[in-house]
Model the fold of this input.
Amino acid sequence: MDLKRAAQGYSALSTDVRLSILKLLAKTGDDGMASGEIARRLDIPANSLSQQLTVLSAAGLVMQERVGRNVFYAVDLDEIRRLIKFLALDCAGARVKGVKIDS
Done:
């Protein structure tokens, strides 16, 4: 992962709202969740949610799929793993006590 991509990913995670969205979607699994359901569960106005999902999508942290009139969002766990690996290996040199990351 290059520095610019990592910075975009970490920047996307820099708000409590986007972290809450990511946490909810991570618990949802591969099927994801419709944007309306995300808004309802997190009590976020639809227009605000749309902006937050756009940031997460642009960073590659969530994927979207249109099914009929609904758009479903799911976490891209591979991209999350790449971000963690970047921070642990490239930045910290895996010197974080107790952390083991498979290369």
